[in-house]
Amino acid sequence: MQTQNVDTLAAVAAVxxxxxxxxxxxxxxxxxxxxxxxxxxQFTAIMGPSGSxxxxxxxxxxxxxxATSGQALLGGTxxxxxxxxxxxxxxxxxxxxxFQAFNLLPQLTAAQNIVLPLELSGRRPDxxxxxxxxxxxxxxxxxxxxxxxxxxxxxQRVAIARALMSRPEVVFADEPTGxxxxxxxxxxxxxxRNSVRELGQTIVMVTHDPGAAAYADxxxxxxxxxxxxxxxxxxxxSVSDALQSLAVAR
Length: 250
Ligand SMILES: Nc1ncnc2c1ncn2[C@@H]1O[C@H](COP(=O)(O)OP(=O)(O)OP(=O)(O)O)[C@@H](O)[C@H]1O
Known about the structure:
By secondary structure, the protein is of the alpha/beta class. The chain has helices at 54-61, 84-94, 110-120, 127-136, 152-165, 182-199, 210-213, 236-249, and strands at 12-21, 28-38, 43-47, 69-74, 77-78, 95-99, 170-174, 203-206, 218-223, 226-232. Strands 6-7-8-3-9-10 form a six-stranded mixed sheet, with helices on both faces. It has a four-stranded antiparallel sheet with strand order 2-1-4-5. Strand 1 (12-21) and strand 2 form a beta hairpin. The protein is globular. The protein starts with 11 loop residues before the first strand and ends with a helix. The relative contact order is 0.17.
């Protein structure tokens, strides 16, 4: 088993993670032995060509999908060995999610959406954190509105407040700016960036956009289900160049 290069104190880590979809002639090896750690209080972007395994890696690390072999570590917990019941609890209490399609409940107000995961796990929302998040996200005036009455950018900011309210060990963001115009996207990314600095939040984001990845501290590159490289302190040019080299190497 590959254990080198994995920070065992990382917030999240994959160790020799393999995911095979299907079987026999139609089997697809979506992850082919991925070993990578995601440090606490860091913002990491996962990038790579279409089909390289980005979503599969995120889903296995978030307990949304089961790996075929290897370990998916959240803190000290190997998610590959947990029952569905435990995984549901882990997702609700220890992980925050931000999705491209926002995934807010349409019949609830913004305020109710933000505190829902905490209420489901029987915890009281911290009023100071609630005020801090809703103020810094600029949604105080929209809290009584339902998602259908909010713009895409406002819905995503509500979704971010919901993800951060439980002080999760990690926030997984899947193309969080994919449905937003560039200005709303930049606001969302800046807020995610600031939550790392101000709240010590750990963020792992899948994106196709080099501009979005440039907000991260680090980029992990995947190709064909394997780690193909990484960049520290990325900027748009270094990310675009790295993606270009991966495309040429294929
Ligand atoms: N449920 C599934 N059943 C079979 N194959 C799958 C399934 N999900 C993903 N795959 C395959 O696994 C590989 C990795 O897919 P994955 O969605 O993780 O890639 P990705 O890098 O996120 O792609 P994209 O950038 O296009 O979203 C691809 O070849 C894909 O077709």
